[in-house]
Amino acid sequence: MDASPLDVNAVRADFPILDTRIGDAPLVYLDSGATSQKPRAVLDAERRFLETANSAVHRGAHTLAAEATELFEDARTAVASFVGADEETLVWTSGATAALNLVAYSIGNATAGRGGAAASAFAIRPGDEIVFTESDHHANLIPWQELAARTGAVTRAIPVHDDGTLDLAAAAEIIGERTRIVAFPHVSNVLGIVNPVAELTALAHEVGALAVLDACQSAPHLPLDLPATGVDFAAFSGHKMLGPYGIGGLYGRAELLDALPPFLTGGSMVTTVTLEKADFLPAPHKFEAGTQPVSQAVALAAAVRYLDGLGMDVLHARERELEKRMRDGLRQLPGIRLLGDAPAGVERVALASFDVDGVHAHDVGQFLDSRGVAVRVGHHCAQPLHRRFGITASVRASASVFTTEDEIDTFLDAVSGVRSFFGADA
């Protein structure tokens, strides 16, 4: 019997896609770490906007334009509040990848002399160091590699222990007087481990470096107060937190967004334009050139209101139970190697990646799919981390607000049959 205060059956009724069957089996969706399913409240919000208020924002004086603009900015307020921030510190982007690239390329523009005196503090010089971690998603690694290549900076990586936790002693040695940026994931998208944001941010700030947080895997699962963490910038993605595709957010401390020069330029982010130059709007609008994802922003606001209604503390507590059930079950299966199997006291979200001895991850995924279980297979855009553990690919199962204990058990039962099916247990 479910002892959680969350009525999971009522939640499941809000997600139409969960009625899907894969062949003869009911869908067990354990790929929310890649993309989450959407409740009716989100689907209806976007549809309602498109049917009743669809118009370009910040551009027209007619009734629909005014209504669309109000809904768009109300959505900014709602999403900013969800992560503990003020609306002027939230920039709409197409997703977390775009948000992280925005920071990296805007810093590159500052390095090139754009933005004036205020922006000069961001400039990266040859020999400066940009630090990320061995567990970063490619979206929080490659933009910094590219920035280093353009500026002559050096990249350094904080290593990961065998149990998946970051080597904080090494981090303290690596982060030094030449460090300008420290980028790291709040939650590893492969390991599910919640990293020590306060400690890493303090190490960055002690040497005057910027702390940049990838919050993609924390925003759907943990209560967030980004300003309270002390990070300078943070990125998150709507489609991983019950929202639609094509929308995400960049949080930045107000004074930093004000000083940072824009990356994308064009319409809607300017005050005055002549044939010689342009003057830009204040943040966040100076980072929002062109046509904005208006219906998606409205739908993301519906998603965060849905999550707030369930209670993020409640969701996190429940997912810890599911995570333990999943991880304990996998540990008991022969031939299964969990990646980053840190001690029980390490905080996690309900996500686990594993390798099946003698069976390729893609074969495991196809076998599970034949039983209705949807998981992620591959390197999960984290090739360096997989290389660290001596493999090229893994299987990842990740739960969400609608996941049940019975679904975890169905998943474990399916995994238990993989090696015998492929003759790997001989």
UniProtKB/TrEMBL annotation:
Its cofactor is pyridoxal 5'-phosphate. It catalyses: (sulfur carrier)-H + L-cysteine = (sulfur carrier)-SH + L-alanine. Keywords: Pyridoxal phosphate, Transferase. InterPro entries: Aminotrans_V_dom (IPR000192), Aminotrans_V_PyrdxlP_BS (IPR020578), Cys_dSase_SufS (IPR010970), PyrdxlP-dep_Trfase (IPR015424), PyrdxlP-dep_Trfase_major (IPR015421), PyrdxlP-dep_Trfase_small (IPR015422). SUPFAM superfamilies: PLP-dependent transferases. It holds the Pfam family Aminotran_5. One of its GO terms (molecular function) is cysteine desulfurase activity. Residues 28-411 form the Aminotransferase class V domain. Its EC number is 2.8.1.7. GO terms for biological process: cysteine metabolic process. CDD domains: SufS_like (cd06453). Transmembrane segments: none annotated. The keyword Transferase applies. Belongs to the class-V pyridoxal-phosphate-dependent aminotransferase family. Csd subfamily. Catalyzes the removal of elemental sulfur and selenium atoms from L-cysteine, L-cystine, L-selenocysteine, and L-selenocystine to produce L-alanine. This is Cysteine desulfurase.
